[in-house]
Structure prediction request, 404 residues.
Amino acid sequence: MPRCSRITRWRPPGSATPVKTVRFCLLAADGALRRWTFTEAERYLRQALDVVPAVPGAAAARLELETRVQLGSLLTLRDGYNAASVAEQRRLALDLAARTGSTAELLSALWGAWGNALVSGDFPTADRFADQLLRAATRTADPMLLLAGHHARGQVRYHQGRLAEARADLEMASRLADENAEQVRLEIFLQHPAVSAPGWLATVLALLGEIEAADEVGRLAETRADELGHAYTSSYLDILEGWRGVFLLRTEQALTRGERAVAAATERGFQQLVAFGLPPRGWGRAAHGRSDEGAADLRQAIDIFSSLPAGHMFGHVMLAALAQALLWANRALDALSTVEAAIAESARTGERFFLASAHLIRAEALRRLERPAADVAQAVGEASAIAHEQGAQLFAARAAAYAA
Prediction:
């Protein structure tokens, strides 16, 4: 029978049962993951899967589910939410969770499947998984399912540009995360929702034009991240705050938080978080006159995400940020083609939270190219209409100032 080869200070005896061997492997994998040694943790988990077929009865499905949930979380930390290996483990775990009726593992399977869809830019599917989380919460009265459901739906609504709805869900998620902090399992959520929910909420409030409230919520998220001391959560928040700096035109915030996110994620091996940190760092570099470095960061991130066969989120905002960097480099024609690609990407995916700003960037590119004033005014008008439709007062105010 296969054995878990090494477990920190534990080694299953030769007479260990299959159940004990799997448990030893899961314990070893957990210890390795706490040290952020991904390769070692993955080896233990795959050894556990090799042993699972020897487990008798219904316990085999339960242990396989637990192992695949842990493996899916590990691969997400290392490779990202929408890596092919992650999608496969989430699909298998979701099927097992439905068969075994495990509430805790159903949470992990649905949360993982939702994250895979969201990061792939498949917002209708992500929306369906968020609804499944909320329906499961109603059925089971489980507070973690309820927290995950509101958190998930709030992020989907944000990407769709439905900001008032996003605010309501994320406020609920923030409250539930505070009230049930001791029940949160980081191996499921990966980033702590007591940090990530207010982190996303701060961004939504900024787009709604409630800057002081956004800053207050952002400081709260920062305090909680510092108290938690969890590397993945801290890097995740740095990315959110870097993007908030981009939206608010706070160049130092975008640069500093982007640099910190990339450095920490690189050190820990969080590959997808490195890619997510590049755009705010690149935009910040370009804003500080480092045009070539900034554009290179943004192009690198776009290339990384564009290479993913499942698709990706943040497409329109990364392209729009690159267009702005090109404008700062006095490359208006390149900026125009890039921002028009951003607008087309928004139409393709349904991701719209930065669409109003993209139209303003297009207006500025047209102005610099000395295109007809009517074309510039039309672009500003489109920005204004989208901003008012979404309640994005931040961009509505900029459109009004531009038109004045």
The mean pLDDT is 91. Residues 230-313 form one domain.
